[in-house]
């Protein structure tokens, strides 16, 4: 899952990104509205955490522009303005949720999960495919009821495939999901991660199928 | 005597002169009554004297005086006045009457009456003397008739006349007082209503009082009151905005602190935890600095603090500030220097001016990259004390130079730990001291902030004899 964090306080953005990355999210951090607008029009994000007071284009303007493009990416507003008016204005402009600073990191994480679940139209917090299960609350994988240890990149690839179980996920989509803006995006590296994942899934009832020229597919082999 | 009550004051001003006028009136009527009574008494005395004098006859060569009863009956006014008389010949022989009754000291002319007063048998008397030719006398013999009467009837007449008059006057005064009181009550009613309107207002109701339908004398008061309330409202609104803004500004650093704490709690190992805790400490320090700055700003605002008037040595202040910030400069790897071009003393509030210098230098140190330099120059220029802070940092583009004075304004891409109120503080202090703050491009590459403050008169006098400007 790839998140975009737009926050002009460099340190807060930095520390929040650290925590979210530890939660196995791919996190891009931007500090002003213009850059965020550009990134959102070029990249695919699963969720945006948006501060409203930004230099240049402010958060509301950015939100308006994103929604005007027809982009339905879930947006959680994060702002120091806790007034009811501010909250209503943010939600009216198309934000999905609103969190006032200072906030509990746990609460932010819970709200991120809610938004991701809602955008996947899946009320069950646990995604499954055969004996492979992913708890979106703890953000941990289990295979045959045992925890599955994965590197962050492997985690990102497997999560992207599991969310779209039974559907083809292209290499481009995968690379957009797992590489942040600061990463050197190398599509061939995806093959390596898929290879490693196949080894870790070996002996289970879950397989990653390669469709040449199309992408990958997670299947429950019966 | 000071009278606190407006009503009492007005009453005094109206009634005291009125009472004085009436007293004068009563006194005049008393005099008038006396004059009238005197006249009546004198006429009676005159008539009595003539009646007696005309009854003096010469009978066979003997002068014989008889007092006709009618002459005495004239005095019977029911006040039991006693009447005394004597009839003498001009040569001094007593014909009839009271030999010890006083006679007028001066000579009498023929036929005319002389009136005088005297005390007789311990009673005041009014007397009349008449020198009159004797009817039937052959020689030029004359009689002198003196008639005197006690004053009971006279006084009764006076009393009758002026007591009634005085009573009417007092009644008039009382009536006037009552009318004045009613008039005052009605006349002052708008003032009382205004007082009630002000009293009725609740503690935080500062809406203006209606200034229509009000007497022209009161309108300036109401307008002044409304103006005052408008100023108070403005001040309160500014305070509220400030507090709201301040609370708002604390939210992001607090979020950072909370995030760092969460990270520390979840840290995988000791090194990571230490790193997060160091972040917590740094955040706490910058929060403390923000709180201190907010406090300074609220003090620097107009009305925020009683202005202190002292002569501030800018050189000493700058030195003190730079010594305090030396550690921070070393830590940041910045060359911090002081350049004194001459003495500069400015009148004002020492701690606030030092606070302003701290914020200017601190800003310069914060925004100048490591390896750069910050220079503070102090001197005087004309009748200005000048302190300049220059740095080799990125500077402020001209279009941003006015906006950076706005509270909590932070330029795009500014590093994380600035609060955005440092320059607001400096501007408030400099404005409060009657000075000027100028931002421009420094020759060192970064920002040049010039603080122009009025030069203290002592310093100005000392440097006047032909010394050239110390700061170019």
UniProtKB/TrEMBL annotation, chain A:
Q: Which residues get modified to 4-aspartylphosphate?
A: 51
- Record's InterPro entries? CheY-like_superfamily (IPR011006), OmpR/PhoB-type_DNA-bd (IPR001867), Sig_transdc_resp-reg_receiver (IPR001789), WalR-like (IPR039420), WH-like_DNA-bd_sf (IPR036388)
Q: Which residues bind DNA?
A: 124-220
Superkingdom of the organism of origin: Bacteria
Q: Which UniProt keywords apply?
A: DNA-binding, Phosphoprotein, Transcription, Transcription regulation, Two-component regulatory system
Signal peptide (UniProt feature, chain positions): none
Which Gene Ontology terms describe the biological processes this protein takes part in? regulation of DNA-templated transcription
Q: Which GO terms describe its molecular function?
A: phosphorelay response regulator activity; transcription cis-regulatory region binding
Q: Cross-referenced Pfam families, in alphabetical order?
A: Response_reg, Trans_reg_C
Protein known as: DNA-binding response regulator
UniProtKB/TrEMBL annotation, chain B:
Which cellular component, as a GO term, is one annotated location? plasma membrane
CDD domains from the UniProt entry: HATPase, HisKA
Question: Catalytic activity, per the record?
Answer: ATP + protein L-histidine = ADP + protein N-phospho-L-histidine
Per the UniProt entry, the Enzyme Commission number(s) are 2.7.13.3
Q: Report keywords, A-Z.
A: Kinase, Membrane, Phosphoprotein, Transferase, Transmembrane, Transmembrane helix, Two-component regulatory system
Q: Which GO terms describe its molecular function?
A: phosphorelay sensor kinase activity
Residues in Histidine kinase domain copies: 245-457
Q: Where in the cell is it found?
A: Membrane
Q: Membrane-crossing residues?
A: 166-184
Taxonomically, the superkingdom here is Bacteria
Enumerate the spans annotated as HAMP domain: 185-237
Question: Key word Kinase present in the record?
Answer: yes
What is the main EC category here? transferase
Matching PANTHER family: SENSOR HISTIDINE KINASE YKOH (PTHR45436), SENSOR PROTEIN QSEC (PTHR45436:SF1)
The name this protein carries in UniProt is histidine kinase
Traced from the root, the source organism's taxonomic lineage reads: Bacteria, Pseudomonadati, Pseudomonadota, Alphaproteobacteria, Hyphomicrobiales
């Amino acid at each position: 899952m790839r998140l975009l964090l737009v926050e002009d306080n460099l340190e807060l953005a930095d520390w929040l990104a650290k925590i979210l990355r530890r939660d196995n999210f791919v996190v891009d951090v931007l500090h002003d509205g213009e850059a965020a607008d550009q990134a959102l029009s070029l990249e695919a994000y699963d969720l945006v955490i948006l501060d409203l007071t930004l230099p240049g284009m402010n958060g509301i303007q950015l939100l308006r522009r994103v929604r005007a493009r027809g982009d339905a990416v879930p947006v959680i507003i994060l702002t120091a303005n806790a007034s009811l008016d501010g909250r209503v204005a943010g939600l009216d402009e198309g934000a999905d949720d609103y969190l006032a600073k200072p906030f509990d990191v746990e609460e932010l994480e819970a709200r991120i999960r809610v938004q991701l679940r809602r955008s996947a139209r899946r009320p069950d917090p646990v995604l499954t495919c055969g004996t492979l299960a992913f708890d979106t609350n703890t953000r941990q994988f289990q295979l045959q009821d045992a925890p599955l240890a994965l590197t962050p990149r492997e985690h990102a690839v497997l999560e992207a495939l599991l969310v779209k179980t039974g559907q083809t996920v292209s290499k481009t989509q995968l690379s957009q999901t797992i590489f942040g803006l600061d990463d050197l995006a190398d599509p061939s590296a995806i093959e390596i991660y898929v290879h490693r994942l196949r080894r870790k899934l070996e002996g289970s009832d879950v397989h990653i199928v390669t469709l040449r020229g199309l992408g990958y597919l997670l299947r429950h082999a019966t | 005597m000071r009278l606190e009550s407006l009503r009492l004051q007005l009453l005094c001003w109206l009634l005291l002169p009125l009472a004085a006028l009436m007293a004068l009136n009563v006194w005049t009527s008393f005099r008038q009554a006396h004059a009238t009574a005197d006249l009546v008494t004198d006429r009676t005395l005159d008539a009595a004297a003539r009646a007696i004098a005309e009854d003096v006859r010469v009978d066979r060569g003997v002068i014989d005086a008889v007092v006709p009863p009618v002459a005495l009956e004239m005095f019977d006014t029911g006040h039991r006045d006693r009447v005394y008389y004597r009839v003498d010949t001009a040569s001094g022989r007593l014909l009839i009457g009271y030999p010890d009754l006083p006679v007028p000291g001066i000579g009498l002319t023929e036929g005319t009456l002389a009136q005088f007063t005297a005390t007789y048998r311990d009673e005041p008397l009014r007397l009349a003397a008449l020198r009159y030719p004797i009817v039937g006398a052959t020689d030029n013999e004359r009689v002198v008739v003196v008639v005197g009467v006690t004053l009971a009837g006279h006084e009764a007449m006076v009393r009758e006349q002026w007591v009634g008059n005085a009573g009417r006057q007092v009644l008039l005064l009382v009536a006037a007082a009552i009318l004045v009181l009613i008039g005052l009550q009605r006349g002052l009613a708008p003032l009382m209503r205004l007082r009630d309107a002000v009293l009725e207002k609740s503690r935080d109701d500062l809406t203006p009082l209606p200034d229509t339908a009000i007497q022209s004398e009161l309108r300036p008061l109401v307008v002044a009151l409304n103006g005052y309330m408008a100023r108070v409202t403005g001040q309160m609104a500014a305070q509220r905005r400030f507090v709201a803004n301040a609370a708002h500004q604390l939210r992001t650093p607090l979020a950072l602190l909370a995030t760092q704490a969460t990270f520390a709690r979840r840290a995988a190992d000791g090194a990571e935890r230490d790193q997060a805790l160091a972040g917590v400490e740094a955040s706490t320090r910058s929060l403390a600095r923000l709180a201190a700055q907010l406090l300074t700003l609220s003090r620097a605002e107009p009305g925020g603090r009683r202005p202190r008037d002292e002569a501030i040595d800018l050189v000493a202040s700058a030195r003190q500030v730079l010594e305090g910030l030396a550690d921070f400069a070393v830590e940041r790897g910045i060359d911090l220097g002081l350049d004194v071009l001459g003495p500069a003393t400015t009148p004002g509030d020492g701690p606030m001016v030092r606070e302003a210098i701290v914020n200017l230098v601190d800003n310069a140190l914060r925004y100048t990259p490591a390896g750069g330099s910050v220079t503070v120059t102090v001197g005087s220029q004309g009748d200005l004390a000048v302190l300049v802070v220059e740095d080799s940092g990125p500077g402020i583009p001209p279009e941003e130079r006015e906006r950076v004075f706005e509270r909590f304004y932070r330029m795009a891409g500014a590093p994380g730990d600035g609060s955005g109120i440092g320059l607001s503080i400096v501007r408030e202090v400099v404005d409060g001291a009657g000075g000027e703050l100028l931002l421009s491009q420094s020759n060192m590459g970064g920002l040049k902030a010039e603080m122009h403050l009025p030069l203290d008169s002592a310093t100005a006098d000392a440097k006047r004899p032909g010394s050239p400007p110390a700061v170019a």
